[in-house]
Amino acid sequence: MIHRVSEFLVGLLFGLGLLLSGMTDPGKVQGFLDIAGVWDPSLALVMGGAVVVGLGAFALARRRTATFLGGALHLPEPGDIDRRLVAGALLFGAGWGLAGFCPGPALVAAAMLEPKAVLFVAAMLAGMAIYGWRGAAR
Amino acid sequence: MHIDWAHFTPWLSLGGGVLLGLAAAAFILVNGRILGISGIVGGLFSAARDGGAWRLAFLAGLLLSPLAAKALAGGGLWPAGVPAPPRIAAGTLTLIAAGLLVGYGTRLGSGCTSGHGVCGLSRLSPRSLVATISFMAAGFVTVFLLRHAS
């Protein structure tokens, strides 16, 4: 139960971070991705702030064998840098640029009952489901 | 290069980034998991071997964050006018295409801005660095084509 409470609070904190950072506004995201136009560098600071904190946290996690609650640490195994990884990232980046939404901010904007964000999330979930079915068919 | 000083929000964005980092830190150190949104959501569609309750608990918190921000603002603990209303320029068909690309692409590439961008770079993962460079490059090119190529 303590795990569920913690996961809920982490989700809440992450959402607040997205709201504060400006990433729930696709106009701001596209302003960052538009280096040839009038460029808004804000999102570089979002990434910078997050990674500085993250570097400390993952350095600590690597030295531990269990979580603070004594549970398993699910650190990813080192994987291959393959076509699948790059192709997936390129498709994602194209969609990100087209709409200005990546998954987290889209979910939060949908929760703000923005009809266009709800539509984007529905399509995103469909994309994930299609990937799942393809995997099941293999 | 021209900087858009009118929309530049250095302190809010840095502060938001720190909150994202703290959330990712708590998720790995307390719950033992990587905070990657596409993985957390996408996992709901594959056989939920782990029960999926942890995914739903996280997502419930995420989806309630706008209400929490409103409550905090009511108590004077949250900056006024944040978040700005989302400006969504894309039309219906573009949003559908973009959503499909984001959903399928993040699953194929095993991560998005949070999993590869925040957690992966923080782990110094070469794989996540390649993914992050790839999706950033695709984002830059797409917006360039969208805004400057016609």
3D architecture notes:
- The complex is a heterodimer of chains A (138) and B (150).
- Chain A is mainly alpha-helical and 138 residues long.
- Chain A has one domain.
- Chain A contains six helices and one strand, in the order ααβαααα.
- In chain A, helix 5 crosses helix 6.
- The mean pLDDT of chain A is 95.
- Chain B starts with a strand and ends with a helix.
- By secondary structure, chain B is mostly helical.
- Chain B has one domain.
- The mean pLDDT of chain B is 95.
Unreliable segments of 5+ consecutive residues of chain A: none
Global outline of chain A = globular
- Give the terminus-to-terminus CA distance of chain B: 20 Å
Quantity of strands of chain B, as a count = 1
Instruction: Tell me the series of helices and strands of chain A, N- to C-terminal.
Output: HHEHHHH
- Total number of domains of chain B: 1
Strand content of chain B: under 5%
Question: How do the strands and helices of this protein lay out in sequence?
Answer:
The complex is a heterodimer of chains A (138) and B (150).
Chain A: H1 2-21, H2 26-33, E1 38-39, H3 42-62, H4 83-99, H5 103-111, H6 115-137
Chain B: E1 2-3, H1 10-30, H2 37-42, H3 53-74, H4 92-108, H5 113-122, H6 126-148
Helix pairs in contact in B: 5-6
Summed up:
The complex is a heterodimer of chains A (138) and B (150). Chain A is mostly helical and 138 residues long. Chain A has 6 helices and 1 strand, in the order H-H-E-H-H-H-H.
Task: Offer a few descriptive terms.
heterodimer, A: 138 residues, mainly alpha, 71% helix, 1% strand, B: 150 residues, 6 helices, 66% helix, globular
